[in-house]
Amino acid sequence: MPLMSLAATAIDQPRPRPEIVQTLMRYIPTDSILCRHTHGPFAAEQNKHFDPVLSWINENVGLKLQPTSSIFGIELSTQEVEKMEEYLEKLDKWEMAAVEQLAGACKSVFIALAAAKGMVGVEEAMVLGRLEEEYQIADWGLVEGGHDIDIADMKVRVSAPIVFLKLLGKL
């Protein structure tokens, strides 16, 4: 069913493409890859996992983004906005459907792009998308019937778009 849903979304284009791009753009300033802790063990975990993705994004999109500790995120320059919009616009309809779903599942446009372009696989995308929650679970414990269901749901929502792109020969 998840693969059929992705295919139907890509084919039917239920929302205009510019609207999808603008929705994704709104999330970038506060993307989890950019908004981080500045010190402590969680900051080290974020740097370890997120720095490679941020480097990949900067290199492949032509940006020079740096992480921030501000809860308000970063402010993109006009050039950065244009480059990011151009990169998103170049995604074909199959990639766009996958990126849109991955961004929602991972709560990160950058993790979504890294997964859709093969920079990270299913397992790594799961780790990246769940990093903060897993850190909280380690500290406070797993809520049965809550966290475990979220994890199972995320596995489907992350693996389906990546498998979808692999089946299409995009990865």
Task: Summarize the model shown.
Helices cover 68% and strands 0% of the residues.
Explain what this protein looks like in three dimensions.
This protein is an all-alpha fold and 171 residues long. The chain has 8 helices and no strands.
The top level CATH class name? Mainly Alpha
Work out the count of structural domains: 1
Q: How many helices?
A: 8
Question: Uncertain regions: pLDDT < 50 for 5+ in a row?
Answer: none
Helix and strand content put the structural class at mainly alpha
Number of strands: 0
Compile the SSE list and pairings.
Blueprint: H1 2-12, H2 17-27, H3 41-61, H4 78-89, H5 93-106, H6 109-116, H7 122-140, H8 147-167
Helix pairs in contact: 1-5, 1-8, 2-4, 3-6, 3-7, 5-6, 5-8, 6-7, 7-8
Main features:
171 residues; mainly alpha; ATP12-like fold; 8 helices; 68% helix; globular
